[in-house]
Amino acid sequence: MIEPFQLLERQMLIAPLGVRFWDVATGAYVSNGLSVRVYRDDDRLHSNQASPNASGTYVLHHASGLSEFEMGVGNPLFTDSVPARQPFMIEVTDVERRFIPLKFEAGLPCKGLFDWQKTITEGVPLDPPVNNPSVPLYSSTLRTAPPGMAVLRAELYESPAEEINDVRKIRPAAWAMIEARSGGRLLARGIADEKGRIVLIFAYPAPHDSSSSFSTSPAGPFTAGLPFRQQEWTIQLEAFYEPSTLSSPPASLSPLQPFGSSSRDEPSIPILSDILKQSPVNLFLDEAQTEPLTEVTLSYGPKVLVPSLSSPVGSPPNPRTLSVLFVSPAD
Amino acid sequence: MMTAWGQTAEVQQRLLGWAMRELENTPILPSSLLNHYVQEVDTFRPAETVELICDSISLQDLNSLWDGFKANKTNQHLSVTYVARMVLLESNIEMTEYPPAQTRVFDVGKEPAQ
Asked: Would you call B86 an interface residue with chain A, using a CB distance cutoff of 8 Å?
């Protein structure tokens, strides 16, 4: 017979944050390769890392100022009462560079999975599924697109260019956002990186048929139509760019950064909800803003969809045959 | 298995060659194409694709396949086989996921003296 266990001490460990990340392009949760740093009051130097657990949730332990709570000292069970929340900043970067970096605010401790959707104001477009609390991640241009998906790449610049000491300088439209739609239906939403490079990865729209595709008639469901690789779709593009709303305090830098770590050139990452609620602006194919771009034609195939001018793009001085687009910041 | 049916051997060869070329041109079938020809429009999720790869099987296996058609008095015809990769099958068995554990409790003690 097993004798009763004599309890001497009870230790409790409470995680103040559990958050999931959702890949907007594929609709899958991202459970590895992310660096999730949590800090208070823009004190990035004293940040703590959240680590992924077996179910793909990033879990934070040892948050600054929450040690007593995490040990359950003097508090009733967390499930019975939630203490006052303290504001934290959560910064997400992808070690594999598949996604653009982002950050968002969270009040900790947070009971259950962190529900980012509930923290943002009305009018901010949402990408993650409503019933699954998660934070959306947007693809970077360095990411290899999954096979069988359409890809739109572009470089975005502000126009007109600035003249500093008689030198024309054109500023990249960092953190601008582009939405692609087909027939009014949202296909994808992409966010530019700090150099204005943007990629949108999305599933191809449904093929066009000469008649209804599905039929329950005995003759069969298939109808003649164009081969899929000869199909073309008109994609509407809408840009959003308002750098004045993206004011983000520069990250405090460590005076003792290890060799090879992020340098002082590390860009200041804006808050995700600020990026998403930028005002719409017009897209142009040229810096003089004479050729607006509202639609592009998409066709199936391994080639990348790049809207471009018929004449070579000369400004900014960039002879590459990639898509260079221009936006004016919203007032 | 893809089979060409024609009145003559030349028609069969031409037909099969054309079909193989089309499949090589579009080896990855995207979700929108796959969903377009079924009644449920969300059978395949946006990132789900099917990749077709020409993969011949042994003559013995091919003969075994055609043996199944003998009941219909169908003779062996010109055919080529493909492998469809990464076809995800969803089950209707509900997977229960327990809520995430946020609090862990460790009891430290000792066994009573013997």
From this structure: no
